[in-house]
Amino acid sequence: MISGSMFKVPLNMLFTEKVGKGELAMDDLIGGYRYSELLKGSIVHSNNDYAKILWNEAGRWIENENTVYHRYRELIAPYMGEDPENVDEKYYENNFFTPRQMINCLKLLAENPDRFPGLIENMQLAEPHKYFKRDEQRFDMAHKYGYLTKGSTLYLCDCAIAYTDDPIVFVMFTDGVDSAYSVMADYATMMCDYTQYNTAQRLEAEKKAKAEEEAKALANAENQHEDKEEAAKSMNDKLSGESLVNAGADMALSAGSGNSVGAWLHSVLYSCNSGYLSQ
Question: Region annotation Disordered: residue ranges (predicted)?
Fold first, then answer.
């Protein structure tokens, strides 16, 4: 689908990644401009001339028979989750992306902000009260819109990282949609609401699971304690029985082998310890 200026996100990922690697500085000149100026101009102000300077520069990083624009699209393909050699040919025809490609791009950026220094910060400054950010002001949002008209058809797009309790990425492409601005704003709010609801459900489930796990651990500990007490009691009973036997034997011996009372006591005690009675 026609992405409009959303292409400036993966385009700047090429350059900010070089900044992160130390291969490029924000003050380095590209086409007579500091890169920091090109970054801000293309993302915050959506300057197409600055973007063209950047893709022409990127297109010179590799050498093949393709055009500079084609080569720049080859370079950004991995950010979009695509193999540049096997991607659909339409990818190279014009400024086309699919929603899935833009989601892959945003997900990579959101999960690796230090890999692309400065890009998210500039996206957070862009159009603070328009597109996805027109109504949704509860959460910080890094976004880049796309806008193009062909005849009477409006192509309105936006892609965003929303910093809800569990951050999310989402994108919308429209093609001649009535009230596209309102549809886009409502969609952003709906996505944030849905995410917050799911987060609350997840946290409640985790809390319940933790409580159940703690209760199970406590029950196991109590059972182990009871088992230990029972084992200790059995040992004490055994030791007490052995003590009585020994005491009875001592009494019998002290009474002498001819003493019938001592012999009777020895016989009874011995039989009790063995589990049966005999006299």
Answer: 214-236
